[in-house]
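The freezer alarm interrupted the setup, so I double-checked each line after restarting. Inputs confirmed:
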Amino acid sequence: MSSLEIRDLVVALTATPDKPIVKGLNLTIKTGEVHAIMGPNGTGKSTLSKAIAGHPDYQIISGDVILDGKSILEMEPDERARAGLFLAFQYPSEIPGVSIANFLRAAVQARMAEGEELDATGYYKKLYGKMDMLKIDRKFTSRSVNEGFSGGEKKRCEILQMAMLEPSFSLMDETDSGLDIDALKIVAEGVNAMRGDKLGVLLITHYQRLLDYIVPDFVHVMYDGRIVKSGDKSLALELEAKGYDWVKTELAAV
Amino acid sequence: MSASAAPTLTPSLDSVRFATHLSQRSYLPAWWLETKKAAWNQFNALPMPSRTDETWRFSSLSSLDISGFELPEDASQHIPNLSDFPHAAEIIYSNRQLVARSAVPADLVAQGVIFAPLDEALTKHGDLVKKYFQKLPANLGSEKFVALNTAFTGTGSLLYVPKGVEITSPFVVQHTLSGANKAAFPHTIVILEDNAKATLVEFFVSADKSRHLASGVNDLHAGPGAQLTYVGAQNWSADTLAFQTNSIVAERDAKVLSLNVHLGGRQARHESHSRLLGPGAHSEMLALTVATGDHEFDQRTLQTHVSPNTTSNLLYKNALLDTAKTIFSGLIIVEPDAQKTDAYQKNRNLILSDDAEAHSLPGLEIQANDVRCSHGSTSSRIEPEQEFYLQARGIKPEAAKQMLIFAFFEEVLNKLENEALHKSLSTLIESKFKK
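Predicted 3D structure, all chains:
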């Protein structure tokens, strides 16, 4: 079993290090678990996921992120990815001129030992299998990464990458945003198919709707850069019913 | 040293050397020898480019020194194989010697297709060569070096495709230079008659790291309704002074796609002039450059729209590394009769080093009133969000950077219909990045 520990994490934009966005966040995720972080806009949810993935726009001011007992903060983004972290982007980049097939191939190759050859037949077999599962047309392999994709196609492409790269921990940043209900179901089915002992998931979402389809083991409410409330899946329903103002009021009362 | 009956060669391209060159070709048609003599005189009469020449703005001039070069006499042992894609036939020169030639498929010969080395074409199809040879020269500033090409050319080819013959498999011509101070003057003529279709791929390559001089010229003529694809890819040594001049003519409803790939050379000047002579004619003008070291890539283009309803689309992409320098200067001329012209010109520079220098001089000269024209140039760097996206998938920074550089070129390479050729050119470009 693997674990991802976020300890007293303080994150700011690299450009404004004196204005923290994440303000001392603690969370431990183990493989086999699905955690959901919910919270209003601007509370630091996306900042958290990007900082963990090593995005250069974000600076970790203090605290630590520990993957299986080892801090990842000194690691480059690509090293973090190869160590088993995956960030499903809220707004995946369009990369004209790089086909999905070549892109994924390079990502799979990067995980292999120096000099080891990729088994092309096996690779395509696996790729097509995952594409079928996510109802992605096989013609997509020759299309440029995310270029001209609809919102739903982009998100399915993120899940496809996750399925191919088999991370230990996946940080899913608002994967439900911009999805209609059919696309949401396909994405959820994909994630559910990957659930199991070898994968830990952190779902970041604004809406409870996603959690109807990917049922979390734990739900955390994030507000003003911290986790202010944790519970099981019923917390999400309560939040949906009462709204985020409920959390604010409750916090104010403390 | 052993005595030899052969005339003594002076190690430069002087009158003595020219006279020898001419005497070795006395069996060729008289008009050709006269053309060569006139060109030699023109070469000598024309001044070297100077600071006041608008067509040489931003170019390095002191480095255009062509003294000390000589015509090679012996083929090199080492000849790189670049035509690793299915092709109809090929002609390979090494140091001006015809070292390999594959037969044109019999069915094409039966249909009247001609693919021959230049000297043979002059002997057997002299009138055809005469009709098209530099009838509409590019005239974009390198007239002196084009004249030098005509004076000394002996290597090159003629591809002639008769009316209605469509050939998908490319024809290949390769020019190889090796040994210090050797020079090459290739001249290629492609003639497609009405509704014919063909592709010619020409490689220019140094087989070693020596100092070389090359001045290549072509005449690309697409008759009515013809579809002509020309690829010229150069990978000269880092100590080569290179000139490459395209003259493109498209008649009524003809479509021409030209792609020039520039990978090598200390200083490489490329000129390309498209003339849209008949209504409905189209010219797609493409170029890719990987500029490394302290090398200079100088590109001058002209899209001349003579007839109405003609279109042209130019896309020149340069990736600049190290302290490399690129110059793009392009002009679109729409003549008074050329109404309903669509003409586009784009120069995109990918700046990969703070010390690289990209100059861009786009231009328009419109004499008709009902046209759509645009021109523009951009210089950009690798998009950090794209770089992060690739790295977030575990791709190492160097590999990610390389993928994005290739992605920049794909937009151009994707315009090639032939997948195998596309792949082969990608591999050639990739080799430029291997250390």
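Quick read of the result. Residues 151-165 of chain A form the longest helix (15 residues).
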